[in-house]
Amino acid sequence: MLHHLPGVTATQGTALPRARPTSRWTLERKLALFIFVLLALVIAIFGTAAFRQMLAASVERATSRLERVAEQLAVTSAATATSRVAQLREVAADPAVIAAAERGTTPADTAALRERLEGDRRAADSTLVAVELWTASGRPVLGDAARNGKDAAALLRVVPQVVATRAPARSPLYGNAGRVHVWTVVPVFAGGRVAGAVAEHRRLASNPRTDQTLRDLVGEAVSLYFASTESDEWATLRGVPVEAPFGLPPGKSATRVRDRAGRMQYVAAAPVANSPWIIVLSEPEQEVLARPREFLGFMVWMGGLLLLVALVSAWLLGRHVTRPLRTVTVAAEALAGGDYSRRVEVTGARELAQLGATFNAMAAGIGRAHAELAERNAALEQANAAKARFLAMMSHELRTPLNAIGGYTELLQLGLRGPVTPEQVEDLARIRRNRDHLLSIITDILSFARADAGHLTLHMHDVPLAAVLADTQAALGHQHEAAEVRVLFDPVPADLLVRADRDKLQQVLLNLVTNAVRFTEPGGEVRVGTEPRADRVVLRVRDTGIGIPPEKLERIFEPFVQVDASLTRKVGGTGLGLAIARELTEAMGAHLSVESTVGEGSTFVVDLQRAGVPAVPDGPKALTA
Ligand code: ADP
């Protein structure tokens, strides 16, 4: 049989289903996101590292500066104090001062003694309040301290210490009338014993120049305090008493402490040698971290800008990279839709140019192959039509003389042309049988040729299956009785409808039943069963005959194929029945198949379209036995 070439003209113009995208994310977006995430990570990692580094460096720089300046100030203070003690020692060694101390009473000429004690220092030294002379027992020889309770109390704590230790000493800092004061006391020796004490009274204050120098050194944010170990009096750089703003750090190195206002401060303290004083420097953490924070802000801003630029560039890059792919996709879709003339113009990177060239070559190849196939298909169709025409004509031409043969044979048989002997009658009967056989072969060939050429005219209706089966049974006549084969039609509900061409369906069924009878030994059985399903009806023609070997199961549906040609000579047949049956069933939207076991029998299955609404069966009806 000449099959139609499938797929060429049929698929032309039919767009292939678009490949379902596996993800919502296009390559272009993925690329942009990837670059963005990568860059964001890099910026975040390096930014954090740089920020941490800067933070550590800022803290380190601030604390070491605080420590260094505190230490320097402590050393300078100690040096100043030492030089003042040396000065006071000189005063204490003055014979007039010694004499006055030994006398223990205020001399008549206080101006002279004051001159001895203070010299001209008071005018030049703004922090100096007075230099006084006191007895070892703590009475003033020359001095006003006694008039002020706080001054006296501070001084009288130091004098006994100086007398006892015979060494100079300094009082702790103490506040008085809004200023911070301090005493430096030096013993006055007379003949090896401590006769009295020279006491220098100072009020802490810095002059504007020193102030500025310090500010230049440590910056505006740093606060500078004096504290003392023996009292909790604190003073600012300008000598104003203040409440301790925070606790003193335990060691020499700067530490982070919380001040009374709750703010964090970096604090460094340095004790002044040979005194109870401590120089304390503090800087708010906010100030220390100001620059790193500024840097962080700048970095976030810059990083954001950089990421934005990166995102846009990544997106543009993605578009640029995927553009050739899009071009090829569009062209491939056009190709799938049957436009074989479509070509792409892909330039740029070598791989992409290669892709374009390969696509174009493929499109050209497919186009050529398609044209060739279409051409061949047309030729084949022409040939097929010619063959069908030839067969139809031949069948017609052959049938005419055969009918004549039949007619004349009958005339002879009836003795209308003269008497015939019994032998001649038998010969004439043989001629008749052979003519009939030849006629059936020609009829088969004709109907197959029609079906194969697609010249089938179907009249599809909702056909009651029971009626078709009854007609089939009637058409079968008594063939099976001669073959001694029982044929059983299972009962079918009268309202079971199938969608079919009634005559063609009957032709198919008759062919199957006839085959079953022909290929079943005497005493065997043929059964026609029906199985209604939701939207199909399955018909089974089952026999207990010789069966079909597995390798022939499909081939028997091809024209002129017979399992056993020698057997055919006995049972007759052209090898066209099943080929016609299959063409007819397929044309009706049904399906014909076979299952078989050699020696046990065969079952031919017709899978039909069911028609109408399934109704309640009105009881089985026996058709035949
Ligand atoms: P034919 O006219 O030769 O019977 P068919 O097309 O009807 O042509 O059948 C093709 C071949 O299939 C038969 O020659 C036979 O060998 C095999 N065949 C068909 N039906 C049966 C059956 N029921 N049992 C066994 N063999 C069968």
Structure write-up:
The chain is of the alpha+beta class and 625 residues long. Helices cover 50% and strands 19% of the residues. The chain contains 15 helices and 19 strands. The strands form three sheets. Strands 13, 14, 15, 16, 17, 18 and 19 form a seven-stranded mixed sheet that branches. Strands 1, 2, 3, 4, 5 and 6 form a six-stranded antiparallel sheet that branches. Strands 9-8-7-12-11-10 form a six-stranded antiparallel sheet. A hairpin with a 2-residue loop joins strand 4 (174-176) and strand 5 (179-190). Helix 8 runs parallel beside helix 9 (350-413) and helix 9 (350-413) runs antiparallel to helix 10 (422-452). The site of adenosine-5'-diphosphate (ADP) has 20 residues, from helix 13 and helix 15.
Pick out its properties.
7-stranded mixed beta sheet; 6-stranded antiparallel beta sheet; 15 helices; disordered C terminus
Outline of this structure?
The protein is an alpha+beta fold and 625 residues long.
Radius of gyration: 64 Å
Number of distinct beta strands:
19
Mean pLDDT: 84
By helix and strand content, what is the structural category? alpha+beta
Residue share in helix:
40-55%
Named once each, the bound ligands are: adenosine-5'-diphosphate
Count of helix runs: 15
What's the main sheet like? 7 strands, mixed
Low-pLDDT sequence parts: 1-17, 614-625
Large-scale geometry: rod-shaped
Strand fraction band? 15-25%
Q: What distance lies between the first and last C-alpha atoms, to the nearest angstrom? A: 38 Å
